[in-house]
Amino acid sequence: MPARARPGGAGMRRGASAHRGCVPAPHGARRGPCPGGVLPGAFGAPDRLVAVEPQEVNSRRPWIVGVSGASGTPYAAAVLRALLAAGESVDLVVSRASRLTLLDETGIAYRDAHWREDLGRWLARGADGKPGAFEVDTGAADVRHWAAGDLAAGPSSGSYAVKGMLIVPASTACVAGVALGLSKDLLQRAASVTLKERRPLVVAVRETPLNGQTLRHLVALDEAGAVVLPASPAFYAGATHIQDLVDFVAGRVLDAAGVPHRLYRRWEGELGGGSARG
Ligand SMILES: Cc1cc2nc3c(=O)[nH]c(=O)nc-3n(C[C@H](O)[C@H](O)[C@H](O)COP(=O)(O)O)c2cc1C
Question: How far is the CA of 109 from the centre of ligand 1 (A)?
Fold first, then answer.
């Protein structure tokens, strides 16, 4: 299986776009230059408009990526690489159990104290186990790591600015915890916060077969507004390598989040594309 580096590698582009977060002034209010316009004050009343400093307007709004202890750490790596390649900021929460799956699937021991170094080795790894399949500069990438036990971390609060959350892969235990609102760790708490704030939540569940309890939890998540996205690769996109199958699932996660990517070849309405490469 050939090693493949993607164009526009992770860490190449940083930071928010110049006008991100600029909110139009309410009707009748005097609008300042953008960035640094005006935002509604408390309760959005026009008489309580407050000036906003440019650095506030341009504040970071990451995607939270939660990695739970289901098999499928290559899915998480593919999602993380693609988010960073798209210039997105990432807040990463790696559950305690997922450190076991990561160790099992990659041989990498993920340590809170050395997370950047460990993340770099993880993201460089292909789904086939090749250590240097991707070029990823995690030193330059806009990634923030939060320990799974840190319930005072930014993502534990709804007032912490984020775009939404992607749980990749999601264990059935995690699905249950989020569906029931257990918040047993930061990952589950951040997911509950994402739902209560009506932000996008994508849950890439990985288990087979599924019991009735998990199915009911998945329905509850769907009804709460989450996108339930089984980590279930398709074969119509002409996969020839394990990485292609992994990238298909990762690409569907990014589709659900509305983040542009080139992880898989989209269906264009003609039969036979899947076998064309063979
Ligand atoms: C090697 C390994 C593979 C596992 N694979 C899965 C899996 O595919 N799906 C799943 O739901 N749980 C799986 N588990 C079990 C979860 O890790 C376990 O339920 C754990 O409590 C999940 O905790 P978390 O949701 O806090 O990460 C696996 C465990 C290990 C050690």
Answer: 16
CB 214 less than 6 A from any atom of ligand 1: no
CA-closest residue to ligand 1 atom 1: 101
- Locate 77 and state its tokens: 């790596």
pTM reported for the whole predicted model: 0.83
Indicate whether residue 82 lines ligand 1 (CB < 6 A).
no
Q: Is the CB of 71 under 6 A from ligand 1?
A: yes
Identify the residue whose C-alpha is closest to ligand 1 atom 30. Answer: 101
Cα of 145 from ligand 1 centre, angstroms = 21
Q: What are phi and psi of 167, to 5 degrees?
A: -105, 110
Q: Kindly report the backbone phi and psi dihedral angles of residue 244, in degrees, each rounded to the nearest multiple of 5, phi listed first.
A: -65, -40
Atom of ligand 1 minimally distant from the CA of 98: 27
Domains of the chain: 19-59 (no CATH), 63-257 (3.40.50.1950)
The answer to whether 136 and 104 have CB atoms below 8 angstroms apart is no
Sign of the CA dihedral 231, 234, 235, 240?
A: negative
- pLDDT by residue (tens digit) across 233-275? 999 999 999 999 999 999 999 999 999 999 999 999 999 877 7
User: Mind listing the pLDDT tens digit for each residue in 108-151?
Assistant: 999 999 999 999 999 999 999 999 999 999 999 999 999 999 99
Atom 14 of ligand 1 has which residue's CA nearest to it? 70
Taking the centre of ligand 1 as the mean of its atom positions, its distance from the CA of residue 50, in whole angstroms, is 48
How far is the C-alpha of 277 from the C-alpha of 40, rounded, in Å? 54
Which spans in 111-171 are helix H?
115-124
- Token pair belonging to 7: 């164009």
Q: What is the 3-state secondary structure (H, E, C) of 43-103?
A: HHCHHHCEECCHHHHCCCCCEEEEECCCCCHHHHHHHHHHHHHCCCCEEEEECHHHHHHHH
